[in-house]
Amino acid sequence: MTPFLTRRTLLTERQEALLEEIRAALAALRTALHRFGVDVAPGDMRILDDTITHLDELFLLVVAGEYNSGKSSFINALLGAPVVAEGVTPTTDRITILRYGDTPGETVSSAFLVEHRFPAEVLRRMAIVDTPGTNAIIRRHEELTHNFIPRADLVLFVTSAGQPFSASERAFLELIRDWGKKVVLIINKADLLDDAGLAEVVAFVGRHAEDLFGMRPRIFPVSARLARQARDTDDQALWEASRFPAVEQYIVTTLDEEERVRLKLLSPLGVARRLAERYLLAVEDRLSALREDVAAIDNIERQLDLFRRDLTEDFERHRAEVANILNEFELRGIRFFDETIRVSNLFNLVRHQQEISEAFARDIVADVPQQIEARLQALIDWMVEKNLRMWQGVMDYLRRERAVQQRSGLIGEIGATFEYNRAALIESVAREAEKVIATYDREAEAQALTAEVQAAIAGSTLVGAGAVGIGTLLVLLLHGAMLDVTGVLVAGLLAVGGLYLIPNKRRQIKRQFHQRVADLHETLAETMERQFNTECDRMITRIRDAIEPYTRFVYAQHELLLTTQRDLSDTEAEISRLQAEIERR
Q1: Of 43, 426, 437, 475, which has the maximum CB count within 10 A?
Q2: In this predicted structure, what is the pLDDT of residue 19?
Q3: How many CB atoms lie within 10 A of CB 94?
Q4: How many CB atoms lie within 10 A of CB 322?
Q5: What are the beta bridge partners of residue 220?
Q6: Three-state DSSP state, 10
Q7: For residue 276, how far is the Cα from the chain centroid?
Q8: d(C-alpha 86, C-alpha 94), whole Å
Q9: Spatial separation of the C-alpha atoms in residues 100 and 34, rounded to whole Å
Q10: Contact (Cβ atoms closer than 8 angstroms) between residue 341 and residue 490
């Protein structure tokens, strides 16, 4: 049979354009949901795909309601023949799509879907769907009906005059409303009540329906049983008593070609709006969680920046103290040379070099190496302690995040995988931080850092480190400063007699000593700065590497969700525009 909406005689040029715009909006929505990923709820993508697939199908009139409300008898009365099974127990266990056919026949499409052909004139204009009753003991029947509702272009909801608009019926009507479907209410078994009682039921149903839908839908009280009898006996009076002519007139006349096209165009937009709104909320929930994560990561980065700034400031303080120690050493050395390198002391300069060297070591070098080593060691210990506190800060945040995860749980079907991945990453990073803290050995860390500083000093000054410590290295360097210049002095004095050159030589030696100490200070300062910057970078990199999987997940998800949010918002706006235009027609 030629699809309803592809018959060019039935569609105006603008209607065809609207159909293509609807198709494009649904495709855009599908792309956005695909980007949302595996967290799209089971069934939602199938519903959207079905909606796209059935855009060109014949108008679909779905008859729904609770079991024993008389759905099947209503359909048989409408078709004028016992086409579908009736009974007081749930008899419809499959979705039955009734289509026009010159010869009655049945095609089983799947375990839960059957197509029935029947030569009823009304089926030339639309397909009628008989659905399993809801609120029955067989929950699979209700699930089938729920899943089929999104395909409906119009829903005839059948309720019983004996128990109209029950709580379970209201819940099912909410589902129909949420999918954006137009609903017509059929109050069956009207013959069970007198006119006053029926009027009361109609008013009751009307009030509750208006409260639910925000407007009063069409309501038709009928007796499908009397209508069937009237058709079978050709009894016009009984036909009028069944009140069926009004609903038949609505289906045949009011649902004319133009109205069916209008509802057919609105139907997929209702489905699309529901899905767009649903996943916009899900995206906003995710973004809310990720905003907290981004803020936390930014906070960790600020703490790392503060960590580096604190280390730099403390390093500058320690370096200044080392400079002061060397300056005082130089001043003592200058005084030593002034007092030692004199004409009156020439004999001692020539004969007692060992004693002079020992005096320099005892009085001038004194505990300078130990002072410098103490400054370096204090900086190393502080750096190690600061590193541990930084790890503990990361751990405290992750511990709080895990507590929040445990309290809030997952957010249900939508977003479950996202929440699981996020929680798993937080847990993984937390375990890594716990492991670092549990195995953090301050002494070992300090020893390792001391060894690296020692090696750096030795390498920069071309002094073999061997197994000696920083203090011993500094002793060698400081003694070297004195021996270099005094050795030159003695050699010069011995070469020329030196008696008249001693004052000049003393000035020369003092300049050389000053330069030697300055070079030592510069080398030591540069080596310290380079090494401590390297260690600072290493500490920060280790923390960043530990949280990097979590950070990468957060920023990647944040970017993806912002894109998805924009696309869903644009699609929702386009859906609203199309709905408004169709409603105006």
Answers
A1: 426
A2: 92
A3: 17
A4: 21
A5: 186
A6: coil
A7: 17
A8: 13
A9: 37
A10: no
Q: Could you tell me the CA-to-CA distances from 490 to 235, 317, 347, 455, 483 in Å, in that order?
A: 143, 39, 11, 33, 10
pTM of structure: 0.69
Q: At residue 541, what is the residue type?
A: T
Alpha-carbon span 394 to 399, nearest angstrom: 9
**Which amino acid appears at position 38 of this protein?**
V
The ranges of the chain annotated as CATH 3.40.50.300 are: 60-254
Report pLDDT digits (tens) over 103-133.
Answer: 999 998 877 889 999 999 999 989 999 988 7
| Helix, strand and coil percent figures for the chain, each rounded to 5 | 75, 10, 20
**Residue range 135-152: average pLDDT?**
74
Distance, in Å, from the CA atom of 354 to the CA atom of 50, rounded to the nearest integer, reads 101
Helices (H), 409-441: 416-438
Domain 60-254 grouped into CATH 3.40.50.720: no
Q: Is pLDDT at 462 greater than 80 in this prediction?
A: no
Which residues lie closer than 8 Å to 181 by C-beta, 6 or more apart? Answer: 149, 152, 154, 155, 267, 270
Whole-number Å distance between alpha carbons of 82 and 155: 21
Closest CA to 227 of 280, 188, 178, 181: 188
Instruction: List the structure tokens of 217.
Output: 């839908």
